[in-house]
Amino acid sequence: MTEAPKEAGFETRAIHAGAAPDPVTGARNTPIFQTTSYVFEDAEHAADLFNLQTFGFIYSRLNNPTVSVLEERLASLENGRAAVCAASGHAAQFLTFFTLLGPGDEFVASRNLYGGSITQFGHSFPKLGWKCHFVDPTDPENFRRALTPKCKAIFLEVLANPGGIVVDLEAVAAIANEAGIPLIVDNTMATPYLCQPFDWGADLVVHSTTKFLAGHGNSLGGVVIEKGTFDWAQNGKFPSMTEPEPAYHDLIFYETFGDFGFTMKARAVALRDFGPALSPTNAFYTINGIETLPLRMDRHVGNAQAVAEFLQHHKAVDWVSYAGLKSSPSYDLARKYLPKGPGAVFTIGLKGGFDAGVRLVESVNLISHLANVGDAKSLVIHPASTTHQQMDSEALAFAGVGEELVRLSVGLEYIGDLTGDLDQALMASQKG
Amino acid sequence: MPSLASASLSGNTTDMDVLFYSDADLKEVLNSVHTIAMVGASANPVRPSNFVMKYLQGKGFRIIPVNPGHPGEQLHGETTYASLDDIPDRFQMVDIFRPSDVIEPIMDNVIALAPGKGISVVWMQLQIRNDAAALKGEQAGLKVIMNRCPKIEYARLHGELGWGGINSGIISSKRPKLVRRD
After folding, report:
1. pTM
2. Band of pLDDT at residue A399, cut at 50, 70 and 90
3. CB contact under 8 A, B169 and A18
4. Are A311 and A422 in contact (CB under 8 A)?
5. What is the mean pLDDT of residues A28-53?
6. Which of A376, A388, B15, B33 fits a disulfide with B92 by CB distance 3.0 to 4.6 angstroms?
7. Which of B25, B159, B171 sits opposite A2 (nearest CB)?
């Protein structure tokens, strides 16, 4: 018997996976290949590339050497087989579902998702003939109850944005497995450093790399990663994987590419035909960000825990929803799935409701009032007056976003400066 | 060289066992063979066997197509034979593009031919796996690889697969050698 070699550690792969010195120049850092296209060796080589019959670069809408480094690095960090990047997390979700679904198909999703995903699934996907059933993820059986024969996937955020809710991944994975459909996990809020969804039965992982992976608020990006063990031929539900693809002279993707067939299909058809390619410059910033991901995430969760504990005892704060607090209903699940810490994005409820929320975001001096998360800088937003302002109180309550709710993304600053800024802004929020 | 397949092949084997082949062993196989008989080689240019043959030819391997439906026909510059028995030349590896449930007679044929032809490796393509046949082959001294593609493995081990975002599992600070076609 040959022993499986011990894989390099996470921290090592965060710096090296997918990258190597440039063979021509010896450049050690991954260069930005700022080019649209690549010269063919001859006409036959070009034809073989276009037909996916040999390996190589064609046109940067399909693949690019800088983007490829990021793709392989993310596939490695998630312990997956292959990955394809996209211009944003939303674009990555689109590539994923376009590869899985046809008109009339359905899927089940947790209702505790980033608001933009709720809108994408609930309002834009139906225009393509795809129906999403949203369920409360706190009881895994809700996913099973919502499944229909037309459902082709289950989607969830393991660490939900913004609520600080952790979903019981293993239980939902068992339900998806029984139904013969893939479990897709959005791992954006946790990153592969804090949570490894493939270890718990997920089949596909998506990220907005814009957040903690890039980590510095400078580059949009998204990715879908394939574990490589899902059997696409088990039940006839995935013809795009198992039947001849007319757009590629009837090539059968699962047969031809095996355990990275999904990634190839998402790239060769969805990315090619809809075009949301990641720019090489954004890939470069994201690659550089990921090199320090383990260090940053340790500081992010350390600071988040300290801020949450500080806020829990603050007289202007009604409640704190952070899965790292023993008072959180997600505390035990967080210990299981996110043992290094449940991320750095969470919500608090202010005394004084809507007006207090507005005053808080207008009073912070160090923390930035904006609509992003996962930056080295600490960020704050009051959804009821910004991202969710079109909703009335009833709709806000259904979305789990009360008028008193404020979302924090805790950055890497000195903890005393963060609690100091929050303290003065919280005091100001109470002066009506 | 130790067995390429997992230890379970000689013990209790189930379909759930994950096959493992080390990079070093795969490299040794791909470096040690020069001529490959390809069972199930297709003249249809969108069938994987057709472009796997073409790709491996481009990397310097000689591929001899075997297809009982098209004996005597030319494929990528080589003559197709009806069976392994009909191939006049020596070959070190048999690459199989046939369903899992028809592998055993092919394996028996390979075992019978192995000493005379110098065959040392039997390779089954993606989604093709027959543990009983593999055990038989290993007991006869053959190296057996299942559910892998030599084109994909060659590309992965030579740094060509990175363009597709595929996890090669390779970590190295060495300056790679340029891969040349032809």
Report:
1. 0.91
2. low
3. no
4. yes
5. 92
6. B33
7. B25
In B, what residues contact A, Cβ < 8 A? 2-4, 6-7, 20-23, 25, 45-46, 48, 51, 54-55, 58, 126-127, 147, 149, 152, 155, 159-169, 171-178, 181
CB B144 within 8 A of CB B104: no
At B1, the pLDDT band (50, 70, 90 cuts) reads very low
Contact B55 A267 (CB under 8 A): no
What does DSSP assign to residue A278?
P
The residues spanned by each domain of chain A are 10-289, 293-429
Superfamily of domain A293-429: Aspartate Aminotransferase, domain 1 (3.90.1150.10)
Q: Which CATH number fits domain A10-289: 3.30.70.20, 3.40.640.10, 3.90.190.20, 1.25.40.10?
A: 3.40.640.10
Dist CA A286 CA A86 (whole Å): 12
Provide the mean pLDDT of chain A: 94
Per the CB < 8 Å rule, is A13 touching B171? yes
Query: Class for domain B20-162, per CATH?
Result: alpha beta
Residues of B in contact with A67 (CB under 8 A): 165
Gap between the Cα atoms of A340 and A343, Å rounded: 9
